[in-house]
């Protein structure tokens, strides 16, 4: 089937079911007809402002109806959508704007002060579209209000057709291994991955997805695109800090799907009424997890606590892969609990040695992926692109192996391996052991510089309820790990620093240990 632009996912669903509710957010229930019309009008506004195919348009908005209309509207205009975290710091925002040279910026209430503090926006910026009518402006000729923008003519659908290889979006990585990199995803990358996910999750127009992950994060973007593609409904809840309200809304809306990263599920298990709501979630067909390694203990507990009819999909992916690379079929999960599964439809994931040769089952090497979902490269960074893309595909940086059934396992990351006293140690192995004690909500194992050992292992752990002793945890590790893998110190903390996606921010965790 010929690949089309990402925005045609919305257009097709709007034509097929115009009166169906597409998005639910804070009391708003927006139909496909209205959502598509708003996106068309926004696209018309952008074209009138001189936006051309390939121009970058930055979106600085939290999850909401206006974000969704902005995202698809930018794509309809043939431009490149660049969603950024609304909590981006002033210095980082200045660097990103200089790097992107965007034609325009769409922002919401509370974000405008960032632009106010910047001495000078890039000269490329010809307009700022403010979703908040009270946005303070120092350059009124550049600023337009949302209502004014969506009051004009709709851009006729198809008037700016884009080829599958055209750049659709630049999505920034979390920066866990250095400066955030702008991942360039084509329309074909996103549409092919969307179709593959729809296929293995068996999504239909009857699916209702609860979204607590930010849309600027590649997994959040994937949740949006997959459910818009099938004509389903996206329920946006930006209040995950109040987990009880999320669970209640899932019950009220008849949510069929929920997705999260490991910390999402840790908090649902231990700081929400999920267990007591089992009988009030008859529609919850599936849950999906990605965004990093989830401890075995959490997976086992989820299988016990989730409603018996709810299927749990453990998945693996990367921003560079337009989101998804592998998944474990729920029926195989109990026997493959430590696995990231097999490649999704249309994708190949191999275990290669440093010379690019494919390794046999059980042999550890780097996971390398290929398929139509693999990124075009990093924005304005050919050197970084060349380090991860070659004739074999995308080098994930994850180390792992394949078992006799073809299931893949991640044993750690090349850039997270720590050299302690001459031994190479993967922090993930130590974290897994600590989590198995059952007394912790989450944990991270880090390497601090040490003049004798090179690195010294230190664990930051968030206790559940009561306060386990650090000596007790160390004794637990000594009974299960070789001496050189036991942390030299375990520090109990109230919470671990995280990125807005919910992933643990290892760099900030290191600063806590300083």
From TrEMBL:
Keywords: Ligase. Pfam families: AMP-binding, AMP-binding_C. The lineage of its organism: Bacteria, Pseudomonadati, Thermodesulfobacteriota, Desulfuromonadia, Geobacterales. It comes from the Bacteria. It comes from Geomonas oryzisoli. InterPro entries: AMP-bd_C, AMP-binding_CS, AMP-dep_synth/lig_dom, ATP-dep_AMP-bd_enzyme. GO terms for molecular function: ligase activity. Residues 10-379 form the AMP-dependent synthetase/ligase domain. Residues 429-503 form the AMP-binding enzyme C-terminal domain. This is Acyl--CoA ligase.
